[in-house]
Amino acid sequence: MLLDFERVWPSVPYILEGVQVTLAYTGVSLFLGFLWGTCLALFKISHIKVLKWFSSFYTSVFRGTPLLLQLMLIYHAIPQLTGYTISVWEAGILTFTLNSGAYISEHIRGGINAVDKGQMEAALSLGISYPFAMKDIILPQAIRIILPSLVSESIDLLKESTLISVIGGADILRRANIVASEKYLYFEPLLIAGGLYYVLVMILTLGARILEKKLKTS
């Protein structure tokens, strides 16, 4: 097996530029997905049947269909149905947000259910309204409980962001494929791309472990 990294090294900075693109998709989608997932989780534990039905149906649809299909539908169907030409960035953020929100909602719902119900009853008996009790007492504990699950979701989202290359997003994988087609060398650029993803995942995992230790000692 002969490897020719010398022909690829000049293009490494170009591939590295895809790191910020990948992190942008991951970070923005994770933040928006967390907000949306929190809303869905609250819908699921609500006593309003319409909200419970909507959140359950929504989650089943986005968890039961491939992410790539969702991305293609949003990127191609929105212009056809509305006449609005959606950009690659908008399509990616919208798809990843809607998809991650469905998964995160289940994690948050499980975290809320894991918190002792007596805490909510105690808060209500002290005159604290339900929204404030949920925001200041229940949700912080739930998030602390599900932190490992949120880390796993962020890692999955980081890796799934490679799908954006299918519709032209200039992420790490897309740039590696461009270099490969220009140099007629595929193994070397893809190996570099794989190494970059691995480093990003390890940094994210290490950061999560440090945060988890601080939460345990706080």
Description of the structure:
This protein has nine helices and no strands. The model has no long low-confidence stretch (mean pLDDT 89). The longest helix is centred in the N-terminal third of the chain and has 33 residues, at 12-44. It has a single domain, classed as MetI-like fold (Orthogonal Bundle), CATH 1.10.3720.10. It is mostly helical. Helix content is 80%, strand content 0%.
List keywords for this structure.
218 residues; mainly alpha; MetI-like fold; 80% helix; flat
Structural class: mainly alpha
List unreliable stretches of 5+ residues.
Answer: none
**Oligomeric state of this protein:** single chain
Ends distance: 53 Å
**What is the ordering of alpha helices and beta strands?**
HHHHHHHHH
Report the top-level CATH class: Mainly Alpha
List the helices and strands and how they pair.
Elements: H1 12-44, H2 49-64, H3 67-82, H4 88-114, H5 117-125, H6 130-145, H7 147-160, H8 172-183, H9 187-217
Helix pairs in contact: 1-2, 1-4, 1-8, 1-9, 2-4, 3-4, 4-6, 4-7, 5-6, 7-9, 8-9
Short description:
This protein has 218 residues and is an all-alpha fold.
